[in-house]
Amino acid sequence: MNRFGLLLKRQWLEFGKIYLISFGVLLGVLILFYKINITEDNLNSRYYNSLNFRHPLFLVTGFIFISITSSSYFMNLGQKPKAIINILIPASTLEKFLTAMFYTLIVSIPSYLLCFYLVDAAFVSSIRDSHTLTSSYTDYDGKKIVIDHFAYFFSTETAIQFRSFYYMPLLINSIFLLGSIFFKNFHYVKTAISLMVFVVLWIASTIYVMSKLTDNTVWVGSPYWQDETHIFFATNLVALCLTMIFWLITFIRLKEKEA
Amino acid sequence: MIEINNLNFGYSKHKPLFKNMSMRLSNGHIYGLLGKNGAGKSTLLKNLAGLVYPQGGQLDVMGFNPTKRQPALLSQICFIPEEFYLPPVKIDSYLKANAPFYPNFDHQYLATLLKEFDIPASNKLIDMSYGQKKKFIIAFGLATQARLVIMDEPTNGLDIPSKAQFRKIMASALTDERCIIISTHQVRDLDNLIDTVIMLDENDVALKASVEEITTKLTFKKVKEIDESIFYAEPSLSGYNAVMPNYHHEESKLDMELLFNAILAEKTKFKPLFS
């Protein structure tokens, strides 16, 4: 335990700088986007979608921040002089792996969410001080639903729906962490290209197989797969399994890394 | 301390570096590891430190298998690579982050070594010259009090006074508990420092003998003419520098460069003497 603590402290020297720079850039980008998109004109025109830029912003910056921090963690192992020092640090491979998980998961993901939350809170609070914009509708049960168009990001309906995809940051982390130890150089670009190729092949093959299997057919089985909660459950399960597999491969690569 | 049994290693399947290499290294010695470029000096050192994995055979380093990279073994290994990296931090920060991993780290000894090497403790590592960095990494490695000290070309980049300091420090760093292995091309840098010579050639150990054994069995001297008793000779200004069997128990100083060339050129002549 003591050694693990020492390793966390030591790794901060190497990873801390990249993390702080990435965090600073993230903060700057978020502030810039809020500043550009929230204009007095937009607010006074009472556009319902004045703050809709936040959803793609959250997804894109989240992907970039998590992938960059994950991709940079093991990149030193691609250079022999740095790899020698890292391999010879008197700590077990498991401790080294857990340290990577600590910084790229436990530190990076919550700090991203906190950063987004604080920037959003700061801007939206100032809007809510001087503007209000709501609309309402009646649902099937006759209940009146009020939509606050200047709501804080994490309390919007879309952001709440994002919670079903909680595995995405974990999956992104596992893919880019593996890429950082798998490739010797240009880790980020190579991982991103591999991911892109994989996603394209996956989508194309799924469409092809499903159309071959289901074209001109009628569903006569149980309605299990027509319930979206079951589909979500299956997707989450597959994603979590893939995440675990990528982490396991990363651990094995770390164990077998030579310098 | 170190036992190598039938070690097989190669970076490619068709080009093995070591074929069934066996050797035993003990505490209380400074070994000089010599060999041509590509003979596998650095690779052997990396095998001992667990930085690469052997393709066959067994390695035992202080009772551990280095390929398992157990922290208990790693804390007893000081490895000074030929090409190294130091983070852009102050010496103090580097020590705070790295020294606690070594249970016997001696801060007082480090301060003495840094003073001897003329490196101010307040320096930032990034602002230092290559030679200063090398001296720092050597000082840090020795201060860990590791029992196995492995150095790959440690004198590369050191100026002439620093090389003399290095020899002095290394001689004083040897204890009965320690084993020091130094690989180098610059054999003269190891003069009067090493007590055992290990020479690698053709995928195996071409020679492993103590300096005392070598000078007992061989004599190194200048001769005017070459005769059949001479194993190997190189022309010099006043005749030849020659290596020959020491039939008359003459005392001579080991000329490592001459021995190195002699072993490479006339391996078969030397083999019966040192087998």
TrEMBL record, chain A:
Task: Establish whether keyword Transmembrane helix is in the entry.
Answer: yes
**Residue ranges of the TM segments:** 12-36, 56-76, 97-119, 165-183, 192-211, 231-252
Keyword Transmembrane helix part of the UniProt annotation = yes
User: Which keywords does UniProt give here?
Assistant: Membrane, Transmembrane, Transmembrane helix
Organism's domain of life?
Bacteria
Protein name, please?
ABC-2 family transporter protein
Organism ancestry: Bacteria, Pseudomonadati, Bacteroidota, Sphingobacteriia, Sphingobacteriales
UniProtKB/TrEMBL annotation, chain B:
Annotated ABC transporter domain ranges read 2-227
Name the PROSITE patterns for this protein: ABC_TRANSPORTER_2
Report which superkingdom the organism of origin falls in.
Bacteria
Nucleotide-binding in keyword set: yes
Q: Which GO terms describe its molecular function?
A: ATP binding; ATP hydrolysis activity
State the UniProt keywords alphabetically: ATP-binding, Nucleotide-binding, Transport
Q: What InterPro entries does the database record attribute to this sequence?
A: AAA+_ATPase, ABC_transporter-like_ATP-bd, ABC_Transporter_VariousFunc, P-loop_NTPase
- Cross-referenced Pfam families, in alphabetical order? ABC_tran (PF00005)
Q: Know the name of this protein?
A: ABC-2 type transport system ATP-binding protein
Which organism does this sequence originate in?
Pedobacter soli
